[in-house]
Structures are given as C-alpha cells and as structure tokens.
Amino acid sequence: MGNGVDVTSLQSELEDLWKRRDEVPLQSAEAVAAVDAAIGLLDTGRVRVAELLDGEVVVHEWLKNAILLLYKQASPQPSQFGPFRCADKIPLKSAIDGVQVSPGAVIRRGSYQEPGAVVMPSHIGIGSYVGEGTLVDSWVGIGSCAQIGRNVHLSGGVGLGGMIEPPMARPVVIEDDAFIGARSMVYSGARVGEGALLGAGALLTDTIPVIDAATGEELSRGEVPPWTVAVPASRPREFAGGTFGLPCLLVIKHLKKGERHDKAKLNDAVRTQPPATLSL
Ligand SMILES: CC(C)(COP(=O)(O)OP(=O)(O)OC[C@H]1O[C@@H](n2cnc3c(N)ncnc32)[C@H](O)[C@@H]1OP(=O)(O)O)[C@@H](O)C(=O)NCCC(=O)NCCS
C-alpha cells in the first residue's frame, strides 16, 4: 500500500514521534516529512483514520496522532479565498479525482472523497472520508475524521462532530445508504447504521438514548440500528426541581434490509458522470 511510501515503517516512525513528542524537535525536516507523508496517504484515500471491520469501528491511532502532530507543527499560513484573507494552519485540498464540487465547498487536505461523491458548499475536515455516490448537501459540516459510507445523503445543514477537539476515542460513523435529515447533528463518536433514516432536526451523541417506539425498549446510546427510521423525541425525566423532557431518538419504523424509505430516495440527476482529475 502507499505509492512509494512504506506504510509499516511510516507507522512505527510516527508512533515513536508521538511517544517522544515532548522531547524531540517536531519541526525537524524528518518529523515534518513523516507527518506530511501520513497526511498525503489520508489525502489520497490510501489509508483511513478509522474503518468498519466485522461491524466494529477500528481506529488507527497513529493516523489520528499524525493529524495532532500536524496541528503542533503547523503555523497559520496566509491565503486568499475570493476577497477573504485567511490565516490557516491546515491547508485545503489541491486536487480531487472524479468528485463534483460546487463553489464555496471548503475541503481540507488529509480528507478523502471517493470518485462519484457530490460536494455542495460545505466544510469537510481533515481525516474524514466520504464514500462514492454520497451527497454532501449545502452547509453540511463534516468534522475531523468522520467516516461516511457510500450512497449516503447528508441533507442541508447537517453537522457531524470531529474527533480532535475535544479528543474522542471514536469518530462519527455514517454507514452506507443512510439518510441524515436536514439540520440533524451527530456528535461524540455516534453511529448511524446502514440504510438508517434519521429524521430532520435529530440530535445524536453517545449518550442520547435510542428507543424503540413499538416496545419502549432502549436499544442503545448513540447508535441508530441499521434499516430503521428514527425521529427526534423527548422522554420525561424526574429531577429534584421537577419533571423535564430530555432528548432521545425514537425508532418509529423498521425497514427491510436494502429497502429505501419513500422519502429518502436518491435522485440520479444530481449524480452526474464524475469529471476527470481537477486541480483545485
Ligand atoms: C422521518 C421522515 C422521513 C418521516 O418518516 P415517515 O416514515 O414517513 O413517518 P411519518 O411522516 O408518517 O411520521 C411519523 C410520526 O413521526 C413524526 N415525525 C416525522 N418526522 C419527524 C421529525 N423529523 N421530527 C419529529 N417528529 C417527526 C410525525 O409527526 C409523525 O407523528 P404522528 O404519528 O403523530 O403523525 C420525515 O419526517 C423526515 O424527517 N424526512 C427528512 C426530511 C429532510 O430532512 N429532507 C432533506 C431535505 S435537504
């Protein structure tokens, strides 16, 4: 793996650098080159910060730590974005393969979008991954290291939390064929299962209970089961000061595996033939 980069030795070099980060000069040419090589691998999709293996989220800590080392090494660099002047530590992507990108999209180097993804004006953080056929609609914010599968629909204004600050053990994961309704927020390592539909305005973090409306059973905290429809709701909670409604997610329907909800059908018209490599 890795077009000329020996990933195994790069991993041990970065693990060593991470252990000794308070003792060694992080600005040395070797340290800068090692971090840059790791970010380059992330940028071209040859490695990813986290992936699903046998249904479990596996985090590759050395890649997450490479991003943290980059933050330590980098100093704000001036740039110009239309009429706006910026001073930013993490550069933008400079080339993208086969992805439809609208003006106003801000895509960081070190993130990867598979060919066939569509990116409207939105912000895509470092270390994140977006699968083929996924639509990132306007004003979506994809936090650092969030992992988004294939044929996902992230509706307008959706917010997906990052893994860097505050530091999270797990990234947000949105699995293949999921549909995230407008202005929904998924944070703190929460996970939306394959084919699941999250209704508009939902809030999901690792502590939000997901409750089955048919049985009242709490199915999980922070995980929407695959092939379900979940909408934002509240549950009464007793406190010394009275009874208050705290947010939860209510699973109101179970879909058959592979079934797409009528209100979540994808429209091929927006997914055009991917363009050739674009230099941004
Ligand atoms: C979840 C959704 C798909 C509806 O699913 P559905 O299976 O057709 O369910 P229904 O419309 O029959 O609604 C079932 C119940 O959930 C409630 N409900 C539906 N969506 C809800 C939401 N987003 N928030 C809170 N409650 C919701 C309905 O009011 C209804 O309650 P009722 O039984 O008392 O009438 C739809 O409401 C939704 O949120 N779609 C996403 C829209 C969107 O974000 N589009 C993107 C545009 S860019």
UniProtKB/TrEMBL annotation:
PROSITE patterns: HEXAPEP_TRANSFERASES
Keyword Amino-acid biosynthesis in record: yes
Pfam families (UniProt xref): Hexapep_2, THDPS_N_2
Matching SUPFAM superfamilies: Trimeric LpxA-like enzymes (SSF51161)
Gene Ontology molecular function terms on file: transferase activity
PANTHER family the record matches: 2,3,4,5-TETRAHYDROPYRIDINE-2,6-DICARBOXYLATE N-ACETYLTRANSFERASE, ACETYLTRANSFERASE
Alphabetically ordered keywords of this record: Amino-acid biosynthesis, Diaminopimelate biosynthesis, Lysine biosynthesis, Repeat, Transferase
Superkingdom of the source species: Bacteria
BP-aspect Gene Ontology terms: diaminopimelate biosynthetic process; lysine biosynthetic process
Species classification: Bacteria, Bacillati, Actinomycetota, Actinomycetes, Kitasatosporales
Start and end residues of each Tetrahydrodipicolinate-N-succinyltransferase chain A domain: 9-70
InterPro entries xref list: Hexapep, Hexapep_transf_CS, THP_succinylTrfase_dom1, THP_succinylTrfase_N_sf, Trans_hexapeptide_repeat, Trimer_LpxA-like_sf
The protein, known as: 2,3,4,5-tetrahydropyridine-2,6-dicarboxylate N-succinyltransferase
Protein family (similarity comment): Belongs to the transferase hexapeptide repeat family.
Keyword Isomerase among UniProt keywords: no
